[in-house]
TrEMBL record:
PANTHER family: SIGMA FACTOR (PTHR32071:SF122), TRANSCRIPTIONAL REGULATORY PROTEIN (PTHR32071)
Pfam families per UniProt: AAA_lid_14, Sigma54_activat
Lineage, highest ranks first: Bacteria, Pseudomonadati, Myxococcota, Polyangia, Polyangiales
Protein name: Sigma-54-dependent Fis family transcriptional regulator
CDD domains: AAA
UniProt-listed SUPFAM superfamilies: P-loop containing nucleoside triphosphate hydrolases
Ranges of residues in domain Sigma-54 factor interaction: 207-438
């Protein structure tokens, strides 16, 4: 790329307002570079540049997925497949770009400005090769997307179809420097720009409510549901992981086969292997007959393993072997191993990588199930859904008693529910709705075809909830002020003075929290009416000044490291 092209590319990135805008800018430039290289190569007229893909995948799950497909004409490209999971593993493991000859499974990787060829078959198993070749991909180039502090949190790929070039270097060695430069220039924008507002889309019986806050995640899950790779659904207890797992099964190629659930929180450790694999009569005390396990019962379907962090280390080893070999043997069965024809979805309400570091979860199993990770936000971050979920739950409850009946919620209920915290998520909300429904029955007598749940019913139902009452913002601020006063009194007792000017750090705490929640500096400043600073590009300097005040407060409080470390590192 010449200087003029680079400056024009940067100008387009600066004009981008969303992650998707910047991703399309990056992918278009990468595809154009590949098209130009192909036209000048010995394979001109004998191959095609097919598509580019960009995904943003921080540690806890996928956040964004963008496709630019030159084989589709008209309209927005439909995403019906994923960036190669195997390519992602190679990029993260080697921390550098890779080129893949798909039919041969051969990987070239560039490290220290030299090309190294790995063995044939080093790319992945036959399933991954078949998935890529089924979309006419013979060659793939994958580039890491790094944050400003160097962490790989995404990947951009270019796919090409050129059967004549199988076994050849193809075009990527000639343009790798240009593609890597484009990715490095675009990555900081991708890391900070907000997502494009997603359409809420159609709902159904399994997913009856979908607010703006969940629409982007559901768009990705529609793609993930059609894959055979393991899907990891994270999120707090009661947020709806099992419902989404069943929803994904209903949209998969296995939808006509069983959906089996193994909730490990209800299974003693000594029985976990047996519940997974089944057992033969006499295998242990109490095994009075042959009993199929979850793997057998889910044959050709989906197995959802919830609370996977509760799996014992012994059972983790057994599950790892199952995932890698796709074979298993029931407890006490001396016959040959059986094939496991099942798609796995796993759920967890804890950070599994923290469990790995603590020695409670196998690292190799973590990487084996962390293929398609998504994170469901708590209900308190999906407040646009609360009232709709309450209406759905009330109607469902009423129809259990009166088929075809209708339950309505009074106008003031939405505000009332919005003023409360929901640490128990959808499960807690369902309990409140059931309680309000029972109170409404007491008011109206026996259930008729229609019933109105009034504000007073919900107010009383909520009164039984411990810790769910939401204080006003002013009350919360007074609590924070009280903590500062107590700290000042402690320091006074030591003969020290707590400088009142340190309270100016509150602005930095607010801004830092907003950046973390929204994932974008620009969006955080616009949230508080500072769009002019964003337009003038002065907000980065302002944020740095405010975070310095937060750091000064942390030092005064004796904290070794305050919050927003990554934001401060990015500013460095």
């Amino acid at each position: 790329m010449n200087q003029r092209e680079i400056l024009a590319f940067i100008d387009r990135l600066r004009k981008a307002r969303t992650f998707e805008d910047a991703a399309h800018t990056l992918l278009r430039a990468m595809l154009d570079a590949a098209l130009a290289a192909l036209a000048e190569s010995s394979f001109a007229g004998r191959g095609k540049i097919l598509r580019g893909m960009a995904h943003w995948r921080p540690g806890d799950g996928y956040r964004r997925l963008v496709l630019l497909d030159d084989t589709q004409r008209g309209g927005e490209p439909t995403i019906n497949y994923l960036p190669s999971v195997s390519a992602w593993r190679w990029v993260v493991t080697r921390a550098c770009p890779i080129a893949i000859d798909v039919p041969l499974g051969r990987v070239w990787t560039r490290q220290n400005e030299s090309a190294n060829v790995f063995q044939e078959g080093g790319f992945s198993g036959q399933d991954s090769v078949l998935r890529l070749t089924s979309r006419d991909t013979s060659h793939l180039y994958a580039i890491p997307l790094r944050t400003l502090h160097g962490a790989i949190e995404g990947m951009a790929t270019v796919e090409a179809g050129c059967p004549r070039a199988v076994g050849d270097d193809f075009i990527f060695p000639a343009i790798h420097e240009s593609l890597e430069l484009l990715a490095d220039l675009a990555a900081p924008y991708l890391a900070t720009l907000p997502p494009r507002p997603a359409a809420t889309g159609a709902t159904d019986d399994l997913l009856p409510v979908m607010g703006q806050s969940m629409a982007g995640l559901i768009d990705m899950l529609r793609v993930f549901a059609q894959q055979e790779e393991t899907l990891l659904i994270g999120g707090p207890t009661g947020a709806g992981k099992s419902r989404l797992a069943r929803w994904c099964h209903a949209r998969s190629v296995r939808r006509e086969a069983p959906f089996e659930v193994l909730d490990l929180i209800a299974v003693p450790e000594e029985l976990q292997m047996a519940e997974l694999f089944g057992w033969k009569k006499g295998a242990f005390t109490g095994a009075v007959r042959d009993t199929p396990g979850c793997i057998t019962r889910a044959f050709k379907g989906t197995l959802f393993i919830d609370e996977i962090d509760k799996l014992s280390l012994k059972a983790q080893a057994g599950l790892l072997q199952l995932l890698e070999s796709r074979t298993y043997r029931p407890i006490g069965d001396g016959a040959r191993e059986q094939q496991a024809n099942v798609r796995f979805i796993v759920g967890s309400n804890v950070d599994l990588y923290d469990q790995v570091k603590a020695g409670r979860f196998r690292e190799d199993l973590y990487y084996r199930i962390n293929v398609l990770p998504v994170q469901i936000p708590p209900l308190d971050e999906r407040r646009d859904e609360i009232a709709e979920w309450a209406r759905f739950m009330a109607s469902r409850r009423h129809r259990e008693s009166v088929p075809g009946g209708e339950a309505r919620i009074a106008a003031g209920v939405e505000t009332l529910l919005g003023e409360h915290a929901w640490p128990g998520n959808l499960r807690q909300l369902d309990n409140v709705v059931r309680r309000a429904y029972a109170l409404a029955l007491m008011t109206h007598g026996e259930a008729g075809s229609e019933i109105l749940l009034e504000e007073k019913h919900f107010a009383r139902a909520l009164s039984y909830e411990r810790g769910s009452g939401r204080r006003s913002t002013l009350d919360d601020l007074r609590v924070a002020a009280g903590a500062i006063v107590e700290e000042a009194e402690r320091q006074q007792g030591k003969g020290l003075v707590f400088d009142l000017d340190l309270c100016d750090a509150f602005r930095g705490l607010v801004l830092g929290t907003a950046v973390e929640r929204l994932g974008s500096r620009d969006a955080a400043f616009r949230l508080f009416g500072k769009g002019a600073q964003v337009q003038a590009r002065n907000h980065h300097k302002m944020l740095r000044r405010e975070l310095e005040k937060v750091e000064a407060l942390c030092k005064a409080l004796g904290e070794e490291s305050g919050p927003f470390r990554e934001l401060r590192d990015d500013e460095a």
